[in-house]
Every structure is written in C-alpha cells, then in structure tokens.
Amino acid sequence: MKQIKLSKQEKQVLRLISSGIVCPNTYPHHIFISCVDSLERLGLVKGLWNEGHELEDVRMTKYGKIYLATNPNLHNPIDWKWIITTIIAIASAIFGAMALFVACSIKYG
C-alpha cells in the first residue's frame, strides 16, 4: 500500500474519526470540514453531506481502516529522489573543489 502525504491537521482529523468522534467543540469546524473533504478525495473517509456542503456524519472507509492499521503513526512518505540527488550534488561539489586544489598545486607547486 502506498503512503499518502497528509498534513498535520488531516492526521488529527483522521485520528478523531477513527476513534468515533465527529467534530469536537474545541476543534475549529471549518478546518474539520476541509480536512474531511480532503480525506474523502483520498478515499480514507466517507462523509454524509447535507445541502449547502454541511457535514452531518463521517465514517472511515475500509481503505482508511487498512491504511491506519498499516501506518498507525501516519508517517508521511520520504521522497528519496531529492535526498539522493542532493547527496550526489554535494559530493560532486566537494570532488570538484578537491580537483581544483590538486590541479593548482601541481601547476604552481
């Protein structure tokens, strides 16, 4: 199962929904609604919407339950492509500087 990149708020809302809480009074309602909408597009939850885009109820989907079971801490995926290319760029800069110093020391040494 591929990992999905979730924001901090989406992780909080997904944990709330998995525990059976729809929207606590202490949590901002507009943020909860936008996170449920986003999680619904990802297929993790299913919301019951009234007219005017008002949330009546929300439940976890089977995919959401499986995703939460396989990734209980909700870690975001690591993009190894950027890490590897950064390491290669730094290594090539170091080797280029070393080659410059060696070439200058041979010529003027």
H/E series, N to C?
Answer: HHEEHH
**Strand composition percent:** 5-15%
Number of strands: 2
Helix content: 55-70%
Label the structural class.
Answer: mainly alpha
The DSSP helix count reads: 4
- Radius of gyration based on Cα positions: 24 Å
Spans of at least 5 consecutive residues whose pLDDT stays below 50 are none
Distance separating the two termini: 59 Å
- The average pLDDT score comes to 90
Q: Tell me, what's the shape?
A: elongated
Strand order of the largest sheet: 1-2
Outline the biggest β-sheet: 2 strands, antiparallel
Q: Could you characterize the architecture of this molecule?
A:
It is a single chain. The protein is mainly α. It is built from four helices and two strands; from the N terminus they run ααββαα. 58% of the residues lie in helices and 12% in strands. β1 (45-50) and β2 form a beta hairpin. α1 packs across α2 (29-42). It is elongated, with a radius of gyration of 24 Å. The model has no long low-confidence stretch (mean pLDDT 90).
